[in-house]
Amino acid sequence: DFAAQRETCLHTTSNLYIVDAAKAEGVSRDPALLPATTILVCSPDPLHYSEFSKHAHTRYMGPGCADALVAAAPYMNNPDEVISADVVRARVAKVGPFPRRVFSESQFEKSCQHIDEAFAAANRELVEAVLTIGLSKHESSVRANNEPLSTVFMLQATLNCQQAQPVFVSDYAR
Question: Is the dihedral of CA 47, 53, 59, 64 positive or negative?
Fold first, then answer.
């Protein structure tokens, strides 16, 4: 029973503690810093890991890819709702390699709508600014609750995994 052993496990430095950065609605605190080796799974947006970066080594990994999501598909939904490899690939090609957008029908539809909205006249200059100015414009525009823009861009690790830069989520978004 994990619940009975949780404290011992989380306080053993040789154990891995894998944390999803997504927080439940209404929860504002970060997960606790524990002796177990913590792997925080999140976008390379410092908003998700600012407290962790004060105590940890930070490495950026590239976003997932269609092959990884095809492999994960059998485990992402109920057994009677598994999405086929062809559908997974088609969705990744449209909304990018984000499990929440690919495996949820409603999130997929919402993301498609936001991508289309991002290129409305009101947002076109912001899209250009993110591409030309880079991360600072991404932080001020995408994080400012501009959902169409945050659906069009993702942060991708540079080759040395020390920084991230904004890129389009898919060829469809481009």
Answer: negative
C-alpha closest to that of 23 among 3, 4, 41: 41
In angstroms, what CA-CA distances link 69 with 64, 78, 161? Answer: 7, 15, 22
Task: Please tell me the distance from the alpha carbon of residue 130 to that of residue 18, in angstroms, as a whole number.
Answer: 31
- Residue-wise burial string across 38-57, b where 16 or more C-beta atoms lie within 10 A, e elsewhere: bebeebbbbebbeebeeeee
Q: Are strands 16-20 and 37-41 parallel, antiparallel or unpaired?
A: parallel
164 vs 129, more confident: 129
Amino acid identity of residue 67, one-letter, is: D
User: Which residue's structure tokens are 């154990």?
Assistant: 15
DSSP assigned state of 83:
P
Helix axes 121-133, 105-118, angle to 10 degrees: 90
Say what the pTM is.
Answer: 0.61
- 88 pLDDT band (50/70/90 cuts)? very high
SS3 133: helix
DSSP state of 118: H
